Amino acid sequence: MTPSSVQRATPAEAATVAKLLHDFNTECDTESPGIPVLTERLTAMLATDRTLAYLGGDPARGVALLTSRPNVWYATPVWLLDDLYVEPEVRGEGIGGALIERILADASAARVAAVEILVDAPDVDAQRFYERHGFHGVEPVTGERAYYYALELS
Ligand SMILES: CC(C)(COP(=O)(O)OP(=O)(O)OC[C@H]1O[C@@H](n2cnc3c(N)ncnc32)[C@H](O)[C@@H]1OP(=O)(O)O)[C@@H](O)C(=O)NCCC(=O)NCCS
After folding, report:
1. Residue 27, domain CATH
2. What percent of the chain is modeled with pLDDT above 70?
3. Residue range 108-133: average pLDDT?
């Protein structure tokens, strides 16, 4: 496997993206609608320019899923990294780093204004990983920490 091998996923690769996302949620004891449902959703979503997925490794052992949205404070879109996952057996081999670097290169090429990530407070390994790639969890000027609030509506 070449850790630096990263591909942008097409709708035809929706099942591979779905399997890795399902594995991520299963590992985290988080509910998943299951691979068939995720595959169906991703097949439609990946056909638009609002959802992007990347596969890392050959065969794929890591995945990144992003959504793109307009933001009134910027002239160009903002990308949100919804999920980043590398299979446990191959962590620490550079696949996650290669995914992030490819995302940042494509974001720059697409003139994306900012890339945002939500990280849980106890997930200090992921925080260190993102900080090493240039992200910050505090407002750079004021030093204030950002909090993410959500309300799930059924
Ligand atoms: C975070 C993650 C995507 C990094 O992918 P990776 O391929 O292991 O990353 P790389 O090999 O390029 O870099 C290794 C770095 O990842 C971070 N990391 C986070 N969790 C890790 C883990 N369980 N094992 C190894 N590295 C991990 C560390 O910062 C590590 O560097 P360091 O410990 O030497 O400082 C991957 O570890 C993962 O899938 N973790 C579980 C899911 C997760 O936390 N996703 C992010 C949610 S916001």
Report:
1. 3.40.630.30
2. 97
3. 95
